Amino acid sequence: MNNINFSNITITGGFWKNRLDINRDVTTVAVKNRFEETGRFKALKCEWKEEMPNRPHFFWDSDVAKWIEGAAYILRQHKDPELETFIESLIDDIEKNQHKSGYFNSFFLTARDEKPFTKRDFHELYCAGHLIEAAVAWYETTGRDRFLKLMKKYSEHIAKIFMDEESADFDTPGHEEIELALFRLYRCTGEERWLNLAEFFLNRRGSSEKDLHCDQPEWMTHSYNQSLYGIRSQDTARGHAVRACYLYCAMADLAAERKHDKALRSACEKLFYDITHRKMYITGGIGSSHAGEAFTRPYDLPNDTAYAETCASIALAMFALRMQQLSCDGVYADTVERTIFNGILSGVSLGGDSFFYCNPLELTPHLKDKDNSVRGNSRNWQPATKRAKVFGCSCCPPNLTRFFASLGNYIYSENDGGLYINQYIPNKLDNGKKAAEISTEYPKNGFVKIKADGYSFIALRIPGWCSSFSINKKYTMKNGYAIIENTAGEITLDMQMRPTLIQASNLVTENCGRAVMQLGPVVYCLEELDNAAPVRALSVNSELSAKIEYDETFSANVIYADGFKLCGDDNKLYSEYTGKKEPVRLKFIPFFAFANRKESSMAVWNRVN
Amino acid sequence: MNNINFSNITITGGFWKNRLDINRDVTTVAVKNRFEETGRFKALKCEWKEEMPNRPHFFWDSDVAKWIEGAAYILRQHKDPELETFIESLIDDIEKNQHKSGYFNSFFLTARDEKPFTKRDFHELYCAGHLIEAAVAWYETTGRDRFLKLMKKYSEHIAKIFMDEESADFDTPGHEEIELALFRLYRCTGEERWLNLAEFFLNRRGSSEKDLHCDQPEWMTHSYNQSLYGIRSQDTARGHAVRACYLYCAMADLAAERKHDKALRSACEKLFYDITHRKMYITGGIGSSHAGEAFTRPYDLPNDTAYAETCASIALAMFALRMQQLSCDGVYADTVERTIFNGILSGVSLGGDSFFYCNPLELTPHLKDKDNSVRGNSRNWQPATKRAKVFGCSCCPPNLTRFFASLGNYIYSENDGGLYINQYIPNKLDNGKKAAEISTEYPKNGFVKIKADGYSFIALRIPGWCSSFSINKKYTMKNGYAIIENTAGEITLDMQMRPTLIQASNLVTENCGRAVMQLGPVVYCLEELDNAAPVRALSVNSELSAKIEYDETFSANVIYADGFKLCGDDNKLYSEYTGKKEPVRLKFIPFFAFANRKESSMAVWNRVN
After folding, report:
1. How high is the ipTM of this complex?
2. Which regions of A248-377 does DSSP assign to beta strands (E)?
3. Closest chain A CA to residue B218
């Protein structure tokens, strides 16, 4: 399938229009301000010297590049000459300071004595990848190719060092990203050399003695950065979740180019299956472990210490989008939907100016800030209970801005002359001779109207959560899509949306006897402040009597349902079991909206009685 | 109250006789063999040189001393000339290598270049304390005072360095132990100078600039080793649980000597209350955190990552025994009972030759050995699932041998001419003019027969777990004891013992909706191998229909009760909640017996339906 680029799409209203306006008007500005305060933009001037404040970090170029990429997407649909001029000034800095070889990295060019490409975990190729993505986005937005040329020059240098001369101290990057960026450069320019370079990095992985013996931090294993196996032998998701999924994205990109490579496609499918069937939170969060920000064992999905980095959920959506290129199966868009309404969206506050790095599924403030008698102790790690305006490792905020600004990419694909509708976001598509329009209040309700011109059929994804729906036309089901041949006039899809309790596999031991409230694609949680009790004392009545109410604060439905509150004496550490509980009316709010008010205990998985 | 020393007591049968025979015949021998293999005994010869195997560790003297102390207790009631000769040979080594100043530490005298008493966390005073305890025990067993004299000489040296000259680089030990050992030396010799030295160390704590600024590992806070506050200002249990409770033992010892010191007594009471009402597992395990082996926040009692070191439960029993000196209240012996039948006893295998350092309340083997991508990662720490024959930090095994060999200390106390019976262990007491005898199969059942001569009254502890009992004599209740004035003839106490579900405070969030099966003082658990299902899929029927059956394997009752097993599809990560469960008959085994067969999932706290 070919995914349709958001450039041809105007999002016209509803849930996402509201969020994307906040992304443009608040989040992008807030991130810009933080980057100015912390010296990230200034670092591009390469004027930093020892003992000056704001020592550059080796990942700063990537932060800035992601922000530029997001801003470029915003400018594509929203003029802002001041923003445009500002970005051109950043490109001036890059142009001025790019080494004559083509190399550019503001950290190595200023704060660092070592030679370039000697430290595998110092993110040079990762930063290069993000700069390339930013340059492609800038070119596609403005039509001006200055930035693109600079990054092509850098890419030529990388090809020379890594592919032609093999003179770097490692063969493949410690943090993947360059691979998928080179696919974008290839697709933008049509120049096969970038495809070849991406393919080179991918095929080199797992077979490089240099990578296995290069200098990297002692705690880092070869699983951590996916270096143990060749890409066609990788069948279980391992290591740092963002790195892993960026690699898997590029693997899927390559599989789409090299259709004969069945082993590669099979590896991609196994990895996607392993993640979504064994290692993914119900929110679409992945990488459950704080240690290594990493995947661990199948079904190891603790709620209170969930790492579930925002960037990792974004990377999973990116991977799913690319898997969709390989086969028309609704499971990929289902996974995208799970992430965008839950584990990605929870990464930013409702107001748009503060961020979660981690997205836990349970908060217990009274057990936090442990009375630790061990300094610098990360062994009792607990996620933050409040979103922060700024954090040192600021990968997530600009990843959010660029992701939301290009959310339109996830709506449509085309195949065999048909139009596949993957996400129900109100929009107008104008794809040259073809056009389409979606109107809906989704996920407030499950009613969607679709018009389309010029397609031989329309395929509507019937989400995994949806067990009952009706369509005003004849359709046949195929791989999670309702295929409609008669595309004339308005198509209406009515998905029955009711509060539903979801259970986990018993292998997720912590969730045995618990359930999640879900309404359509939105996962719900209990917060103490709505329920006048620590959430762990609450349980849901298994005979669900739920009521939905639209709540303006969250621009979404809240759910009221019958439940119980334990009546034990909190002051008695141990006493004879009474099981005494009193009926209460529970209020569930969308998970994405948690921790937007006062600090409160919160739980996604709640006991059922 | 005066606790009666076990020397006057012969344990005659029942549950503990069996365990203590194993402690003598198997455990003490197994620990001796391990110590021989690892060079711990040989280290006393102070002949170790660089590049030889078995480099001594700074805590090795304490391991050996605890083992000697245990062996001395065993020899007091069981002749073994070979064992006695072996210990004399160890004393030969100590005598031969003791520095002329009186100093003795096999690590500093061989493996270490630094001057003595320059590193606060290098356990010199801790080792000294254990050597003093061993010397006292040896003297009391054999009547021979050679070892005692050596340790008195060492104690004189310590008094000179720390109290007279203040020439050490710190003022109080980083690991407490010397304080309570000096109380034992004082009580054995009647020499007040040891009481004074103990008091000096105790009063110095929390007011020493040297201690706050001495060289200690970077991760170690002043909370970790109880150095922030003076002893009379310590009212919440903090830091390393063993260190803390050894300190609290000595504080209680001092409070017993200095009866006017109300502030000290109050601090002891507050600490005991804080531990037993907010920071203790139902098994008597304390120190819930792997990081720092430490106390954390109130109610922070996770089951699967419970540290609950065996030594810490022993230290809690020791603290409770000393608190009993301060007031006739059954709560202290209740706590002792909780530890000896659960969190201490679980530290050794049924066979007696392998050991747990940590005593978790839940095991999930399929989530263990995480697919960690971080080397040396202790951030995903999980306790061992099997007892080990040997471990590097071998504090627990010899602590168990000396504890069990002197278990008789916990049975009786005297006060005001009356005899207090704290633990129901079959035994004969011959206390000079007074005598007593207890016959019982406890905890197999709650029936106890008592005879006593020469006491003005008998006080029987009615355990906290017991809600219904009868006594064949008139009695009045006082602070958890049934006081019987008419001591003539046989007294029978019949405690009704029935399987009971216990709940935790809702503040222990993980245990909300769960309960523990308890029978008398014994805490029970489910193991997968008895129940053909991962234990988390099981729940207990709240309408308890339990049956007790005596099991020879465990020398204890097992319990059968109705319950349920979740019927979800383990392969579906998420699916609509059905709550489907089938009735099953559950088999509970004593917690102390867990992990004695095949590796299995295990849980103490189970859901109730």
Report:
1. 0.95
2. 362-363
3. A375
